[in-house]
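Hi W.,

Here's what went into the run:
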Amino acid sequence: MLTAADPGARRRVADRLRAALLLGEANAALRRRNVRLTAILVGVGVLGKILLSGAPNIEPILAVSLFAGMVLVPAYALLVPVLAALLNVAFASAILYPNTYGLPEVAALAAFLVTGYLFVGLAGGRIRRRVLFRTRTIALATAVSVPLTVAWDVWTAFGNWLTISRFAPYHWSLEQTFQMQVPFTLLHLISSLVFVPLIGAGLGYYVEHVLPEGSGSPEPSQQGLEIAP
Amino acid sequence: MRLSERAQALLFVAVLLAALAGLWVAVKSTVPVCGPGPPVRATLQITGASLSAGPEARTTAGCTVYDLLSEWAEDRGAKLVVREASEPLGAVFVLQIGGDANGDGGRYWQFWVNCGYATAGADLLRLHEGDRVHWRFVPEGWEGSPC
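Here's what came out:
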């Protein structure tokens, strides 16, 4: 635990944070690329979800979380699912379903959504590829998104049961909750099979053909993806 | 043999389209389809803030909880406002019955079948002979029972 009497440790933590967030002049180009891509991914995730709010379980946040893990340095990769999920929860609570659930239920459900998307981002980090704008990479990301979508749905359905649906007036069992989840998971799989290739192709093109020129990096990437060191 | 990038892309799109078609059919298979058959008899009771109806034994030409409600609304000239989700599920979400709209006074339309809270949307729940359907206009998390 840090205390005011331990300035050395505080400085070390601050240095680590600065390094993680790529602060400092030495990392300026890499930081600009990460910040720009973080903003784009969060924007696509939140706006896409808002525009598709009438379509249950059709959402781009899982796809942007996956690609955040694939293209960003860890600190920025974590920001994408957290920001996108929290902004989406705020929008849903304030606009779509106002006064429907209490703050404790919303907070607990948000915790399951955020941790689910964080797991997806973590999985994205495990399949990081040097070249993004290539069929094999996008096909790999699409294939990986299938079990991740199922796992995310199982996790969040469990969260829904734990925080909401086992109580009145629902009184659903966990088994019932999972049974009811089936058509929605099928829809979510459709969503992932549409959004992962679409966002992957768009992001890949942007990273490899647009971003290098306008990012202030010393020289445009010849290899393709060089967002993370 | 190594496929060209274009051939890989075409193969990927073909596999993707086949998977999407399969999933679309799988979702559609979860939606009840009312085929030709004997009409279903069920009891309908509606308790709102400004309206109360039933319990009333009714026969529906349809096959879902929503068919029972929409035929009742049509017979009585009662206002029924719904929001339909997009395809392929196309689930119906009831927003208003009569003069009571979701959110009024912090209350929402919810329904029970045979005293159990609904486990799917009204148009996704198939009715069975003798079912008892209760629609109540109550706050979210209401702990009472319609039975």
